[in-house]
User: Fold these one by one.
Assistant:
Number 1:
Amino acid sequence: MFSPLNRHLLLEEVEEIPVEKEESLVLVPDDYSIKKSPHDIYKILKLAPDCEKLKEEHVNCKIVVDESMVQKITIGEERYYLVLENYVYGTF
């Protein structure tokens, strides 16, 4: 399994709760999309050994992070999500 280093966290995407799409009474262009939040929720899978703020008890916790700071890395068939611990806004 991939092991994060240099204060990175290995993450897992948390499935979004599907929102029922309502029929629009206003015509919009086909390529229009609703603006996505700049934040997202992930679950911590593994911590780098040198993490200072987050500890082992935070593994499996859900966190809120700045989506633009999440690094998506593909190695072979596997996809990994990493973020530096200082981009975590909070846990729950």
Number 2:
Amino acid sequence: MFNTATAEAMETPSRIQDLNENRAIKTGIWIYFFFLIFEGALRKWFLPELADPLLVIRDPIAIWLIYMSWRRGLFQSNIYLNGIIIIGLVSLYTAIWAGHGNWVVALYGARIFLLHFPLIFIIGKVFSREDIFKMGKTTLYLSIPMAMLISMQFYSPQSAWVNRGLAGDLGGAGFSSNGDFFRPPGTFSFTLGTILFFSFVAPFVFYYLFNLKKVKTWLLIAAGGALLISIPFSISRTLFFSVGVTLAFAVFASLGKGGSFVKILAGMVIVLVAFAFFSQTKFFNTATGAFTDRFTTANESEGGLVKGVIGDRFLGGLVTALENSGKQPFLGQGTGMGTNVGAQLLTGTRTFLIDEAEWGRLIGELGPLMGILAILFRVGFALKLAVLSFKRLKKGDLLPWLLLSFGFVPLIQGQWAQPTSLGFSVIIGGLILAALQHTEEEPEFEPAEVDLTEV
């Protein structure tokens, strides 16, 4: 009988080269992923003197991945990729001749469109279902020490080594919440990373709850526990809301499927019992109290979770950006100007020169025409993925639907000026696309044959 190695040895030289190049591209994607998770750790703890250059450590990887994919002919023309790349190229010109005029800032802003957004389609093209599962299981493994780390950061003073800020700043990397506790950043440079990471964990926890045979039971229990404790220790309503959205997607997916619905109900009962048990311990109860205080205080000041998180932060930011679009220069103030790095280079201080909200930043940097076009491309792409994911759900495929539960909002409104947010948007967007294009029966190293013009 022929084994895989024998069969591969009989392949033509060009076929073997294609397989090797596909493996190399996949390795590059994994390196991009691990730098996304541990870039902040390098900048804070291990290489603090290189904090600034490490901010763009994933950019050379993105360039290499684009080059290798271009050589392999993996790029397929589609309206979203073409539109974003054109906007990126035009924004370079308008930033120099009609905007802030700084080449470095313009390049930093345009790299979002030209280097990182295309990676979504590369991941979607070369990743198989098995690759998605590997990344999912790796994420579950990482969630366990990450939960331990944020609990240490929660209870440690900001001067402690685990709480050091960028470039070894002894002032700490935690973000003030209320009372005596700070929101922990985990291995990331800012607390947003903790929120995005555990929001990324949630879809895999629920997916494997539906598919218990595909994961070790102890790993699913441990990762589920890590996700549970991350909510109070993060002191983040956004994480609470994000996990709630994934739960709602899972419940919707289980409707009409008795076995799946029972698993969801059983999981919720276990979570409630575990929460009640852990709440009796001082270790967990202190974090729960801090989270509850933050939840109550913020809700009172912002009018509740729905109004504060959904209304003001999400819908409010979108409406405000569109309402103020007419006040911006037609060609914008220049790409990159709305980022912290751009502000540092232009003014010497890290501040929001345009708008903290993503849509406001895009319209301010690019102008009403290109800014709204960029928004429409992002919204259109996310909605297309949503429609395709729902169609696959109706056929019994849960994976793209559950990944969408986290990916939909970052793709539409994620703060791509922030490198960690940009990285998670790229990874989750690519995984959703890969899940839509591949079935579990497809060979591991075969690019999908789906025509991306349909997406």
Number 3:
Amino acid sequence: MPSVYDFKPRFQNMLRPRAEALVAAGASANQVTLAAAGLSILTGGSIALWPGSAWPLLLLPPVLFARMALNALDGMMAREHGQATALGALLNELGDVVSDAALYLPLALVPGVPAGPLVVVVVLGLIGEMTGVLALTLGAARRYDGPLGKSDRALAFGALALLLGLGVPTGAWLDAVVWVLVALSGATIANRARKALRSRAP
């Protein structure tokens, strides 16, 4: 199944001049990683504090796009400008799961959102990322397979937040969408585990 992750190389090419400018200005990849996590925590906190307000929900889509850009930038800065470190690798993976939890869990507090299934989606997403990282312990490459990887989750949650922020009434459609995300999250875990086992070192 196609994934938003497939567009990453093109997205990185667009951002490469920005990465070069940040390096020239003395910024580090780790600083960019921490900035993405901080932005996510602040945005998720605003949703948690004002779950009945539209503006935090409308803020989520552009913040998700900014987070994707920052994640692409820190990777390019690390790989292409000699800033790759063990600490950076840890911050990159931890920053992703912390940011996901901070951004998406507060949506369970929004009136009309099915809290239980949404929390399940977030938890399964975290397990999916862990599964992708665990592939490294088998001697395989880090797995980013879909159908609901990090970028796909961002697109799905960003769209939902936009609709809710614009005042689209909640109801059975939202329950159905969230349960579809649960199923896709489970499929992602299985897909990553299967491909990691197939590609593991002999």
